[in-house]
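Could someone model magnesium ion with this protein?
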Amino acid sequence: MLSQRITEISVTPIPARYPHEIARNAYNWGHGSIGIEWLVRARTDGGVEGIAINKGHLGAIGRDGSVADAMNLLEAVFLGKRLEELLHVSDGRVTGPTKEAKRAFRGQGWMSILAYDLVGRALDVSCVDLLGGKKRDRVDAYDTTLYFSDLNFPEKGAAMVAEQAREGFHAGWRQFKIKTGRCGRWMNPEAGARRDIEVIHAVREAIGSDAKILTDGNFGYRGRLDLLETFIRETQPADVYWLEEMVPPSVEDYRAIRNIQEKVGSEALLVCGEVDPDPISDVYVDMMEDGLMDGYQPDIVRHGFSRWNEIEEQLDRYGVRSQPHCFHNGVFGTRASLIWGAASDSFITIEDERCAPSVYKPDDFTFENGSYTVAEAPGLGLEVDEDIFQSVYVVNETKISA
Ligand SMILES: [Mg+2]
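Reply:
Sure, complex below.
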């Protein structure tokens, strides 16, 4: 079964529509209303199709690849290859990438997810099983779309963010991540911290006492631990579940945050690491050794399943939880996180961009009351709807074959 060869690969940009415009965060200008999933479809001579999105040179902001580069790389790594040349499988589990694939997956982690999907479908088993088996039947997800919309709608202010949270609550989400760090770049520092606090309370009011509030500072409190202390103290009544990247990683600053937490009685998790280019970098290991990090967040699609297996092994030694970042990954990314989360012991919750249905068929991984069902399906269980693909998206498809 794994002797099948990959004979055709295509790349197609698929618009990924957010539930509302994604406004600024602490450092960037916002992401607009539409992202892109660079859908990669790989087909074998055995009639199997695997999919992924290219988050290497085509994926995220600030990188300068091209479709031509992507096709060259896909040709070199996948075209004409047998599936057994990509991953080693033993007793229904992937034991690791082959030596050759490992090199490619290290730089282009998303490719390992494509390999898992192909192998899962060829063997008719779920990627959850390939990753070690199901640890939970449902996987929680959080709404990650609450940015600085108060700055785009000054007449509404904090109520604008609360309004978007209320919409997410009505759509079924029960966990909400609120961007903070207005003090860093876009506002006078004291006024920015004050607005951050106001927004947290406005959202708590909008979503009720049972929903979870997470917050992400995108380093906006860099050099302002005094304002961060005010933020943590004054949001204490709103019961913040985690504090993400309030300041850049540093043993000294994270120890100071722990001290602040102790002083004000905050039990929020400290999570970070999405910016780590080569996980797990030394500063994060130092923080883990000192018990200063609770969850670690390199991107699930950028680094892929093979790399995340290595990361999780290391995190487990320190009792730090896997909490992969998942933004600019669209509908595909939510599924990749779901599959990873279903198979991980320590996973907390999916970062969900809540992108509208697009090129994929509806399936049994349904969302209800804050979590997704882990359905039984081969590979990632995510299927391209060929009718929709042909009628809408094929016009932008680039294809190579062996
Ligand atoms: Mg973040």
